[in-house]
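ARCHIVE CARD
Drawer: 12
Card no.: 0347
Subject: one protein chain, sequence and derived structure
Cross-reference: see card 0346
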Amino acid sequence: MTEQPSQRHPTEINLHAKSRLLTIVFDDGASFDLPCEYLRVFSRAAEVRTLNRPVTGKETVNILAIEPQGQYAVRILFDDGHDTGIYSWDTLYRLGQEKARNWSDYLAKLEQIGYRRAEPEQGEKRIRLLYFAWLAHKLRKESEELTVPAEVGDIASLIRWLGSRKRGAAVLFEAGRVRVTINKQFSEPFTKLHDGDEVGIVPTSPTPPATPDLI
């Protein structure tokens, strides 16, 4: 059977393994962040599609490799051994477009069978923070170890939380003012935090902001 040409084609495919997230940008400008768990439970492999109950227990599944399949698809190899899922460009596009609805339906099915998802990395996390350049001067410290609350689960929420900890500090952590590394690797706002991470916060400009209210 001849494969039908894909209507959409990706221009970027990036795996963020630490966050268990696959980012895909298509030629029409659409961009989707697809969790590995989502891709796994919605695999197009026959053994998944023919199940009479939803796939469970994949909360922490990750992607090991992504293999091209001609010009129309990729095969995704997951770390739980599942390696037969072929995802065409059109399938990935639909999964991105319909993610909210698909995920809501999936959670409803889990509830029907009495399965409760175990959200990974819940609870407090102990991390080490490194401050650089004028940020270290403004905060009067080059490093510190902190226990962050459970609701601080990624870089975006960490930056918001740091800006709220000290009066007048929010301006130091405004969008675009700093870039963040985790364990010496540059991160994205959605990069997940884990217990024991070393987080470096580096100003993007040599000129510090005015902080008249900083205490």
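Annotation on reverse: Residues 125-203 form a domain with the Ubiquitin-like (UB roll) fold (CATH 3.10.20.30). The helical segments are 36-41, 46-49, 89-97, 99-113, 133-139, 155-165.
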